[in-house]
């Protein structure tokens, strides 16, 4: 009987692993959730970026479009085996600013917050370029 139980556990673990990997791929294909805000001086784009470090985030600004790509890594836990790998690893998203947005990349900044959001602020007045990412201190 114990052989049958062990076979059932093995089959269940295998099914959960396949399901988790599939769900992770679905997450990787969906764009990051975002909010676009505007003030008198700048636009602020807020991306959901859970589980990443600043060095794993790439932010580019080109032609009124803010593009973000990030790589996150799974931590390993001593004494635990991964059963359901359900979180996507490579995530991306973009936001188009309004057509009449007159913005500049000079002075743009990106801040990765402790609660897992990425804030990209772009001052108003035209241009294109890369944006540096900083991580909030603990």
Q: How would you summarize the topology of this molecule?
A:
Blueprint: H1 2-29, E1 34-38, E2 42-48, E3 57-62, E4 65-71, E5 90-96, E6 109-112, E7 117-123, E8 129-131, E9 133-135
Parallel strand pairs: 6-9
Antiparallel strand pairs: 1-2, 2-7, 3-4, 3-8, 4-5, 6-7
InterPro entries: A-crystallin/Hsp20_dom, HSP20-like_chaperone
Protein name: HSP20 type chaperone
Pfam families: HSP20
Walk me through this protein's architecture.
Residues 23-138 form the SHSP domain. Belongs to the small heat shock protein (HSP20) family. It comes from Halorubrum coriense DSM 10284. This is HSP20 type chaperone. InterPro entries: A-crystallin/Hsp20_dom (IPR002068), HSP20-like_chaperone (IPR008978). The protein is α+β, with helices and mostly antiparallel strands and 138 residues long. It has a single domain (1-75, 85-123), classed as Immunoglobulin-like (Sandwich). It is 20% helix and 36% strand. It contains one helix and nine strands; from the N terminus they run H-E-E-E-E-E-E-E-E-E. The strands form two sheets. The protein has a five-stranded mixed beta sheet, with no helix packed on it. Strands 5-4-3-8 form a four-stranded antiparallel beta sheet. The longest helix has 28 residues, at 2-29. The protein is elongated, with a radius of gyration of 20 Å. 14% of the residues are buried. The model has no long low-confidence stretch (mean pLDDT 80).
């Amino acid at each position: 009987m114990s052989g049958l139980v062990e076979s059932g556990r093995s089959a269940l673990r295998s099914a959960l692993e396949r399901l988790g990997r599939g769900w992770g791929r679905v997450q990787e294909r969906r764009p990051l959730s975002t909010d676009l805000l505007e003030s008198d001086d700048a636009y602020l784009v807020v991306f959901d970026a859970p589980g990443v470090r600043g060095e794993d985030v790439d932010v580019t600004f080109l032609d009124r479009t803010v593009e973000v790509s990030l790589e996150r890594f799974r931590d390993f836990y001593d004494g635990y085996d991964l059963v359901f790998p359900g979180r996507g690893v490579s995530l991306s998203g973009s936001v188009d600013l309004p057509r009449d947005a007159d913005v500049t990349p000079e002075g743009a900044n990106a801040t990765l917050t402790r609660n897992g959001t990425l804030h990209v602020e772009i001052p108003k007045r035209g241009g294109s370029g890369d944006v540096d990412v900083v991580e909030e201190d603990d």
